[in-house]
Amino acid sequence: MFSGVASAEPGAFHFGFKKSVNGQLPSIDQEGFKPVVEKHGALFLGDTSRKELFLTFDNGYENGLTGKILDVLKEKKVPAAFFVTGHYIKDQPELLKRMAAEGHIIGNHSWSHPDMTSLSEESIKLELEKVKEQVRLVAGQQEMEYLRPPRGIFNDKVLATSKAAGYTSVFWSIAYKDWDVRAQKGASFAFQQVTKQLHPGAILLLHAVSQDNADALGSIIDEARRQGYEFQSLDALHSTQQDELLPDELKP
User: Which of 46, 47, 55, 204 sits most deeply, having the most CB atoms within 10 A of its CB?
Assistant: First the structure.
């Protein structure tokens, strides 16, 4: 099971999953939180009948690599979602503007990156609203629909409060330990860790502070496409999910 290292309030969950092996689907069947995720319409997988991939990055702070990542995405014509914090917004307004200008989604990673399970509903709303408003002012993105809870820590309150505020929480089905900038192992390692987990409908989580990710990204995209995968925007996944919730007579 994949799970980062973090503490959480009693009764909270820390997102983790059984990894994909040999193209088989990952699962969240054994971790105890699947009913909570499903109850609030949080995303973990896309349509597993389609060879589609959804590329997402967490941007808590800048490590000099996001420009290179954006260059690769532009060259390869791949959409992505970048989940940003308040620190990132204040520190990197030009990169934020570039993300929006080049058609990427800017998502909410909270203002101060707290364990949101320890916050009141009002404090959760404030964390999210500050990010949304500042992204609007800096980058001109008028709406913000996607949230990635900091450190993957969540509970029913966090998902319910954020959903009521208009957010879809986005978890992931492909990840590896890429966030430790002191333990980078080279582009080939990143390439292997990501491509060995590829599966239909995957939501990929990469950290933009990783030199390995920045160096391997072009090769990862090329290999995924060689295997017949297409990269799609989270908006496409979200709209499909919304259609599935409609009564049959209203479905397109």
Answer: 55
Residue 154 dihedral angles phi and psi, to the nearest 5°: -155, 165
Residue from 13, 12, 14, 17 nearest 1 by CA: 17
* Catalytic site includes residue 71: no
What does R_g of the chain's alpha carbons equal in angstroms?
17
Active-site residue identified among 14, 40, 113, 207: 207
Q: Which value, to the nearest 10 degrees, does the dihedral of the CA atoms of residues 145, 126, 8, 38 take?
A: -30
Say which residue the tokens 């088989």 belong to: 24
Residue 36, amino acid: V
Strands (E), the chain: 13-14, 52-59, 80-84, 105-108, 146-147, 153-154, 168-169, 202-207, 230-231
pTM: 0.91
pLDDT at 250 over 50: no
Known catalytic residue at 207:
yes
**How confident is the model over 75-85, as a mean pLDDT?**
98
Among 58, 178, 212, 215, the one annotated catalytic:
58
pLDDT in tens, 139-175: 999 999 999 999 999 999 999 999 999 999 999 999 9
For residues 217 and 193, the answer to whether their CB atoms sit within 8 Å is no
Contacts of 17 (CB under 8 A, 6+ apart): 1, 2, 26, 27, 28, 31, 44, 172, 173
